[in-house]
Design a protein that fits this description.
Elements (H helix, E strand, L loop, with lengths): L1 E2 L13 H12 L5 E2 L30 H4 L3 H13 L8 E2 L4 E2 L11 E5 L3 E6 L7 E2 L8 E6 L6 E6 L26 E7 L2
Parallel strand pairs: 1-2
Antiparallel strand pairs: 3-5, 4-7, 5-6, 6-10, 8-9, 8-10
Protein name: Apiosidase-like catalytic domain-containing protein
Pfam families: Apiosidase (PF13204)
InterPro entries: Apiosidase-like_cat_dom
């Protein structure tokens, strides 16, 4: 599956960069082979001097010029996400919702998403900053290092080695007990890479 069209950034004065990130990560970590991005203002080729105007139903979708629309924050942030994924053999990723608790469902699409390559890499996208998700089912005998990827600015912050419990489960040591929270109130990506 290639996601060829999602809601355009800025359409209806909504669907801003945080929605674009959620759409991207939910798509890629659920097994799609690709994801496209669009911005309101680009698709109808608005110009500063001549917006597209009303669609056949009589309503305009907006007047943002393409020269401004292509520079909306989500565009750059999805570029950072692509660059981040290129550190992995992302085409080998498999969806693994059982690798994270809680995990997204149709009823709760804002719970974390997980995918990766068993024994090599795991990527967990956490759309909400409250509560650090538990990474589950880590393989016996495989040593991982962990870090956070900030999907807003592309910064990577080392978390350190993964010390799973006897069940292979691990909660990243973020925040202060008893508050397990992400560093900043936004979405985050936790990733694990095998130590070779």
């Amino acid at each position: 599956v290639l996601v060829g069209e999602v809601c355009y950034e800025g359409i209806g004065e909504a669907c801003r960069q945080e929605v674009q990130r959620l759409m991207f990560w939910a798509s890629v970590l659920n097994g799609s082979c690709g994801h496209t991005y669009g911005a309101n203002g680009v698709w109808q080729v608005n110009t500063k001097g001549k917006p597209y105007g009303p669609s056949p139903h009589g309503m305009s979708y907006g007047n943002v010029a393409w020269e401004d629309a292509y520079q909306l924050p989500g565009s750059g942030q999805l570029g950072l996400a692509k660059k981040f994924l290129e550190r992995f053999e992302w085409w080998r990723f498999e969806p693994h919702p059982e690798w994270v608790k809680p995990a997204w469902t149709k009823e709760n699409p804002c719970a974390p998403y997980a995918a990766g390559i068993p024994g090599e890499a795991r990527v967990v996208y956490s759309p909400l900053p409250w509560g650090v998700p538990e990474v589950r089912g880590l393989e016996i005998g495989v040593r991982y290092k962990s870090a956070l990827f900030n999907p807003v600015n592309g910064e990577i912050t080392d978390i350190g080695p993964v010390n799973a419990d006897e069940n292979g489960d691990w909660v990243p040591p973020l925040g202060n007990d008893p508050w397990r929270v992400m560093p900043v109130f936004q979405d985050w990506v936790i990733f694990l890479e095998r130590i070779r």
